[in-house]
Write a structure and sequence with these properties.
With about 220 residues, this protein is of the alpha/beta class. Helices cover about 50% and strands about 15% of the residues. An eight-stranded parallel beta barrel has the order 1-2-3-4-5-6-7-8, surrounded by five helices. The protein binds erythose-4-phosphate (E4P). Erythose-4-phosphate binds near residues 164 and 165.
Amino acid sequence: MEFFLDTADVKLIKELNKTGLINGITTNPSLVAKSGKNFLEILKEITKIIKGPISAEVTALDTKGMIAEANKLKKISKNIVIKLPLTENGLKACKSLSKRKIKTNVTLCFSAAQALLAAKCGATYISPFVGRLDDIGENGMELIQQIKSVYSNYKNLNTKILVASVRNADHVIKSAIIGADVVTLPPDTLMELYNHPLTKKGLDAFLSDWKKTKQSIV
Ligand code: E4P
């Protein structure tokens, strides 16, 4: 399973890329607003750090406008993936871009029916938002399981499941059990994955015993 970072914070991307765990990046207009920086500049900087897929979201609502934005975003680097909203116009743009072999990430997916439409339009990635479904009392992970089952039934559907709106380690591990292709992680959630109270407790005990031996390795 691939790990993408869900952020537009270039400094953090640079730092967390050192973990060796990052396969790609997803951004969205809210994350860009939070960074306070110019979108195109951010993308240029990210492409210098990350060689894997970098999702850049269009903001037009009409298909023609989305395609015009996609054409501009694509020029930044060949690893830019065009992120499109799961609307009728977004899926028309998806169909047209996939015919041109331009990679797409269809975002704001909240149902298996929507995921099926995106796959039929040739989306490279579908982004179901698990955390936001949990927030309204639904079960985000159930949606991932449904999409996985639907896609597995048809060999000609090659869309990858990119689990988005991930909030915790449970989302990550359940995605891996289901066999989702990618999870996109907020930086804090990635860092949480390293932690377990028994790891900390065990290390403290080992180090305290080691001190008693008065040895050093180097
Ligand atoms: C996905 O690509 C989105 O950027 C993101 O995962 C949304 O997550 P949120 O619900 O935490 O805003």
